[in-house]
Amino acid sequence: MIQALIDSLAAAAQGLPMTLALWLGGVAIGIVAGFLIGALRFFAPLALTWPLAAAVEAVRGTPFLVQCFLLYFGGPFIGIDLSPVVAGLVALSVYGAAYFSEVFRAGFMAVPKGQLEAARMLGLSRPQTVLRIMLPVMALAVLPSLVNLAVILIKETAVLSIITVPELTFRVQGVGSATFAFAETTLVLALVYWALTEATSWAARGLERRIERRMAA
Amino acid sequence: MNPVLQVRALERRVGDVEILRRISLDVMPGEAIGVIGPSGSGKSSLLRCIAGLDPISGGEVLVEGKSARPGDGAIGMVFQQFNLWPHLTARDNVALALKLVRGMAAKDADAKAEAALAKVGLGALGGRKPAALSGGQQQRVAIARTLAMEPRVLLFDEPTAALDPELTTEVLDVIRALAASGVTMLVVSHEMGFVASLSTRVVFLDHGVVVQAAPPAEVFGGGGEPRVKTFLKTYLDRVAWTKDA
């Protein structure tokens, strides 16, 4: 049993870099794409953006597991033949983008109308108002939600094991399959993910406190 | 002398509802017009239409003979909810439009912002963010921000409605000082004593119509129209009750 725990930890150490790389990549691409989608859906007329809205709803309305299967096993039928790692990164990015876009869209809507009217009365142009007022005010409003979503995405990376991405879960489950020590390996998995989410949440809280202090100065 | 602000047969309709009905008003330089009336009478709508923030259905608004639009510098507006930008210090709130719109160098804009803040009694607090200021201080920053752009006419839309009585006083004192220094203004307020002492003329609005436009002594001194008297009696009864209690 001790041996199984040690083996699991070793496997976890092997899989951790892949998990972190996919997570960071997925969050980075997801935030950039999500911002663009959210901004388009807020500023452009509905007649142009309804396909985006439909895509976001489709991603939000289906399980991540199903999306991974569709991309990895269904992709080759329409000429999208991706390696497990690339498919995993794409799936995570698309999934993240859909949720991040909703956070950004809500953030744009949350900017008080009066602050924009004040800018208008003082003669700021529309681009100036967006860049100097809307974006900073929106960024402050959405920061906690962005961080929360990023932390959730760490856990979603575990799903990628199902399409054989050699990340944390895939590696540790390998030990389980070889030794039948499923309880030990799963326990290690749970503890490692928990430690990861605690660490990121802790870092995020520090960041939020710093920003709050700057706002109250 | 020509009027600074001319409102001519101003109308605003939303669907079938007439918010403002053919309102005309000439404001001379240095005048302080107090706009009073019951809630929903169109006071804020009148200010927002003059500012160009709400579309008008008829008539026109002229500042120094030219039709005004938001942001052209002719009209400044102070809002009930202050509407400061929360990510900027008080100084930057005032200086931003000076830099972006007037094209002033950062150093000059900051100096002018400091001067405007000093004028509203906030010389020492320019480095603070809105969240670190009281409501009264925030509203004074908003006044400084508008003042710094040197508009021809200043509009105040219930500037103290979001403040408690103590903070109200500090804001009203600032507005009073501006009026005394000759700033042309329209002030929508429920502070009757303030309106009476500040205004050169008082406009009473009800259901989108100007019921009376006269010097404060006339409006508040018993010479008012019947509708105005009823309104003021309700107000005075409430003040009397507050004093008794």
TrEMBL record, chain A:
Q: How does it sit in the membrane?
A: Multi-pass membrane protein
- What InterPro entries does UniProt report for this protein, alphabetically? AA_ABC_transptr_permease_3TM (IPR010065), ArtM/GltK/GlnP/TcyL/YhdX-like (IPR043429), MetI-like (IPR000515), MetI-like_sf (IPR035906)
What sections of the protein cross the membrane? 20-40, 85-108, 129-154, 174-196
Q: Which GO MF term does the entry hold, naming one?
A: transmembrane transporter activity
Q: Which Pfam families match?
A: BPD_transp_1
Q: Any one Gene Ontology biological process term?
A: amino acid transport
- GO cellular component term, pick one: ATP-binding cassette (ABC) transporter complex
ABC transmembrane type-1 domain segment(s): 16-197
Which protein is depicted?
Amino acid ABC transporter permease
Location in the cell reads: Cell inner membrane; Cell membrane
What family does the database annotate? Belongs to the binding-protein-dependent transport system permease family. HisMQ subfamily.
Chief location: membrane
Q: Keywords for this entry?
A: Amino-acid transport, Cell membrane, Membrane, Transmembrane, Transmembrane helix, Transport
